[in-house]
UniProtKB/TrEMBL annotation:
<dbReference type="InterPro" id="IPR002048">
    <property type="entry name" value="EF_hand_dom"/>
</dbReference>
<feature type="domain" description="Calponin-homology (CH)">
    <location>
        <begin position="19"/>
        <end position="127"/>
    </location>
</feature>
<dbReference type="InterPro" id="IPR036872">
    <property type="entry name" value="CH_dom_sf"/>
</dbReference>
<keyword id="KW-0009">Actin-binding</keyword>
<feature type="domain" description="Calponin-homology (CH)">
    <location>
        <begin position="136"/>
        <end position="248"/>
    </location>
</feature>
<feature type="domain" description="EF-hand">
    <location>
        <begin position="400"/>
        <end position="435"/>
    </location>
</feature>
<protein>
    <recommendedName>
        <fullName>Calmodulin</fullName>
    </recommendedName>
</protein>
<dbReference type="InterPro" id="IPR001715">
    <property type="entry name" value="CH_dom"/>
</dbReference>
<dbReference type="GO" id="GO:0005509">
    <property type="term" value="F:calcium ion binding"/>
</dbReference>
<dbReference type="InterPro" id="IPR018247">
    <property type="entry name" value="EF_Hand_1_Ca_BS"/>
</dbReference>
<dbReference type="InterPro" id="IPR011992">
    <property type="entry name" value="EF-hand-dom_pair"/>
</dbReference>
<keyword id="KW-0496">Mitochondrion</keyword>
<dbReference type="InterPro" id="IPR001589">
    <property type="entry name" value="Actinin_actin-bd_CS"/>
</dbReference>
<dbReference type="Pfam" id="PF00307">
    <property type="entry name" value="CH"/>
</dbReference>
<keyword id="KW-0106">Calcium</keyword>
<dbReference type="GO" id="GO:0003779">
    <property type="term" value="F:actin binding"/>
</dbReference>
<keyword id="KW-0677">Repeat</keyword>
Length: 536
């Protein structure tokens, strides 16, 4: 065990600590007085610097922004000094600073200990009290911040830095060098400081770099640290707090830079996406206008004078519907999704919505106009085609049917007497696919066309001729389509394909029959038949 310190040694340590505090606190106060343009305090006169209240009032104004009341200056007597100090103490109260047991006479009598205590109270309130790290006290919060900033730095080849106080742990100067290097590695080499093993050199390096490059006033001298067994903790805390505030402001500045960069990056990205959207939207609308223009023509302009020309136009229309248009519809859907994404990102990030004349609604409206022009064009061409093909189809079908009727009659006329019995007539009708809804309907027909001996050939031909002629009325054609659609209101493309119609007939119907409003796979055969017969 070491021998207890003698009274003289204790007193010497106390004096040294007081001297160090006087120097550090005075420099700290002078730094703030200087910034406000006030006269500074001589470092060896701090005890008597506040005896007239004037310097105290100025310091409080510089630190806490408290207005300086009207004071008497110079203060020739103790009475005047007491009045001024009383006014200054009122400023202390207004700043909510606690100065335990400080009285007017302490300042008038130049009580150095009480003056330093007063300055320490100011330092705590202004520079240290506001430091909050993990809900610790100001001292522990500042120390914890120092630990975080110096984490990972070595104090020798084997040990890492682990700060436990504001006194002995700072004697090597490495802690100050680590704080600077953590935030500004360009200002000094920590490896060189570690290798030098020279506390005085390291302290001088840190103090000079902080003063020259970081605008941190030199509140301590090298000897304040290396020349004493245990540096004064309050003095070191005061100086370290300057590093905290300097680097905290640096961190805030970096955060501000990052925030501005992020803001600019987001804005630039969204601007580019909006520009790309508008470019693609303009291209799509140009195509829509061009396509709609091609469909806004008359038959005379198209010079449709043959069935081959009509079929060529329908083939071109089918190519447009099947091959060209789907890609543009997909582009419209992509643009709608892009617009939704843009608006969502802008809204989530609190930005103004993207305003443009090329909105999704505007594009949809353009497509609606195109679809209308396309439908009108298709109806016009299809209806015109019917004028060429209908008569030829009827003539061909009539000849074929007459031959079929003749062959059927001959086949079922078993006794070759030119008459069909009731069973023979029914069998013949069934072979031709002529249905009867009820037996009563069949009997009524037989009664109408049968002679005493049976159904003659001419009555058989007339009945079938009338029957097939009736099938070309709107009602009969609609009924036929309804049978293909299983009596549904719409005929699906699948149902149409399953009918095994000739390819050209199938393709014609697919291209000609309008679609249901809400389902492109459903064909509105009723509207098609009604429109066709009306046009004819």
């Amino acid at each position: 065990m070491s021998a207890p310190s003698s009274p003289s040694n204790v007193e010497a340590l106390r004096d040294e600590r007081e001297r160090m505090q006087a120097t550090t606190f005075t420099r700290w106060a002078n730094n703030h007085l200087r910034r406000r343009g006030f006269a500074t305090i001589p470092e060896d006169q701090v005890a008597g610097a506040f005896d007239d209240g004037i310097v105290l009032a100025r310091l409080l104004n510089a630190l806490f922004g408290v207005s300086i009341p009207k004071m008497t200056t110079p203060a020739p007597s103790d009475i005047v000094r007491i009045d001024n100090i009383t006014l200054a103490f009122k400023m202390i109260d207004d700043a909510n600073v606690k100065t335990n047991f400080l009285k007017t006479h302490h300042l008038i009598e130049h009580d150095k200990k009480m003056v330093l205590g007063m300055l320490w109270a100011f330092i705590l309130e202004y520079a240290i009290k506001g430091i909050s790290v993990d809900d610790m006290t100001a001292r522990e919060g500042l120390l914890q911040w120092c630990r975080k900033q110096t984490k990972g730095y070595k104090v020798n080849q084997a040990d890492l830095m682990d700060l436990q106080n504001f006194s002995s742990d700072w004697k090597s100067g490495l802690a100050f060098c680590a704080l600077i290097h953590r935030h500004r590695p360009d200002l000094l080499s920590y490896d060189d400081a570690l290798a030098s093993n020279d506390a005085a050199a390291n302290l001088e390096l840190a103090f000079s770099v902080a003063e020259k490059h970081l605008d941190i006033p030199r509140l301590l001298d090298v000897d304040d640290i290396v020349a004493v067994p245990r540096p004064d903790e309050r003095s070191v805390m005061t100086y370290v707090a300057e590093f905290f505030h300097r680097f905290a402001s640096e961190e805030h500045r970096r955060l501000a830079i990052d925030r501005v960069a992020a803001f600019a990056k987001f804005s630039r990205t969204m601007s580019a996406r909006c520009d790309e959207y508008e470019r693609r939207a303009r291209d799509l609308l140009a195509w829509v206008d061009s396509a709609a223009g091609k469909f806004s023509v008359t038959l005379r302009e198209l010079e449709v004078d043959t069935v081959e020309r009509t079929l060529a136009l329908l083939s071109d229309l089918r190519h447009f519907v099947v091959s060209e248009k789907p890609g543009k519809v997909a582009e419209m859907m992509d643009l709608e999704a892009i617009m939704a994404e843009i608006q969502t990102e802008l809204r989530v990030n609190g930005r103004a919505p993207f305003a443009t004349d090329l909105s999704s609604d505007a594009i949809q409206a353009a497509f609606d106009r195109l679809n209308g022009a396309q439908r009108s064009y298709a109806d016009m061409v299809r209806q015109h085609r019917l004028t060429f093909v209908k008569k030829a189809e009827r003539d061909s079908a009539h000849a074929d049917k007459l031959a079929d009727f003749e062959a059927t009659f001959a086949h079922f006329d078993a006794d070759r007497n030119g008459l069909l019995s009731k069973p023979e007539f029914k069998a013949a009708c069934n072979s031709l696919g002529v249905p009867f809804k009820t037996e009563a309907a069949f009997e009524a027909l037989v009664d109408r066309i049968t002679t005493d001996s049976g159904v003659p050939k001419d009555a058989f031909h007339k009945f079938l001729g009338d029957l097939y002629a009736d099938r070309d009325t709107p009602e009969e054609v609609t009924e036929s389509f309804a049978q293909l659609a299983d009596n549904g209101a719409f005929l699906s493309t699948h149902q149409l394909t399953s009918c095994a119609l000739p390819k050209e007939v199938h393709d014609y119907l697919v291209a000609s029959i309008p679609r249901a409003v809400d389902n492109d796979d459903l064909l509105d055969y009723r509207a098609f038949v009604a429109r066709t017969f009306k046009a004819l």
